[in-house]
Amino acid sequence: MADLKLIKGDITQFKGDAIVNAANTGLVGGGGVDGAIHRAAGPQLDIACRKLHGCPTGEAKVTPGFNLPVRFIIHTPGPIWRDGSFEEPKLLRSCYENSLKRAVENGCQTVAFPSISTGIYGYPLADACQIAVSAIRRFNAPLQVTMVAFDETTYRAFEKAMG
Ligand code: AR6
């Protein structure tokens, strides 16, 4: 079972094996945490992302960490929230599961996640936290997972979901 802890902060400061990026399906960089990761990793990240030819929602692809203090960046496009009837919960769960799979495949032991889809993509926070916590805790691998909440609201919502 993966072990889960929660911190408040900026995921680009995380020192470990991998961080996860809340990307878009084009893997072309954007705002939010994606923008912060691209700025901190440097321009080589954009070049590496373009070679991956995008990524479907719910799946995950890997690049090196470049200027970040991690070996890998795992890019996963979360679902854009519409009304919950467009497989958003299933797709969000897949983001976490597939990102964790990529981490294990690459020999990672420590991986950090931002709260996928709950910013620009508008996923309701409490529901997203439940899915994230359950997907991570049920994942059967010896991984130390850190949820990095960028703001107090997200931190509190994860605290509640973690029980
Ligand atoms: N460290 C940790 N979390 C962060 C950081 C950071 N440096 N910056 C923001 N967050 P969002 P999404 C939090 O919008 O909803 C991009 O344009 C933020 O407060 O980054 O999955 C992509 O290219 C929120 O809690 O991701 C896509 O087009 C969480 O990260 C789209 O946004 C996710 O917010 C993806 O939207």
TrEMBL record:
It comes from the Bacteria. Residues 1-163 form the Macro domain. It holds the Pfam family Macro. InterPro entries: Macro_dom, Macro_dom-like. SMART domains: A1pp. PROSITE patterns: MACRO. This is Macro domain protein. It comes from Secundilactobacillus pentosiphilus. The lineage of its organism: Bacteria, Bacillati, Bacillota, Bacilli, Lactobacillales.
